Structures are given as structure tokens and as C-alpha cells.
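Supplementary Note 2. Why include the ligand at all?

Several targets in our set were suspected to adopt different conformations when bound, so apo predictions alone were not considered sufficient. For every target with a known small-molecule partner we therefore ran a joint prediction. The input for calcium ion is given below.
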Amino acid sequence: MSRSPSSQADRPTVGQRLVDASWTVGTTVVSALLVAVSLWGVGEVSGFNDEVFRDLDCGDFDSQTEAQKVYDDDPGDPHDLDPDRDGVPCER
Ligand SMILES: [Ca+2]
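The joint prediction is reproduced in C-alpha cell form.
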């Protein structure tokens, strides 16, 4: 008799609060995953992913001939093996 049915209906039950809490956690996890996947995608496309492009230095080659081979494969010189641009990488 002391409780009115309308005030009881306004308060969320424990079950409703648990559903709300798990919904919040669920959407947070999904958002975090989406952000992680997007960042990974950006790394793939822009070439900053180490597995896609590994920067080589002259010290990575046993000889100038090996460096020349890599340089000749891509004269754009993405590894910057020939800073003076005379076509001969890793000069001493
Ligand atoms: Ca050079």
C-alpha cells in the first residue's frame, strides 16, 4: 500500500542495469577494436609497417656488389644507399 506502481516502474531493475553495463562494455570493446583495425590499415597503406618495407643500410650488406644489386632493382633508392646520387651505392 505504501508503494505506488508508477514509482516502481521508473526505477531500473538490477537486470536492466546489468544489461546497460554489458552494453556499454560491449560497445567500448567494439570501438577499441575498430580503432585498432583502422590504425593497422593506415600502417599497411602508407608503408610504415616494418613487415612491408624494411629499410636497409650499407651495413646490412656484406659487399658493395650486394648493395649495388638491391640498388639496381629499385633505382628510386628507397633505402637511401646512394646519397650523392651518382648511381653507385655504399661507396667507401
Ligand atoms: Ca654514391
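Residues 14-46 form the longest helix (33 residues). The chain has two domains: 17-54, 55-92. Comparable summaries for the other entries are listed in the accompanying table.
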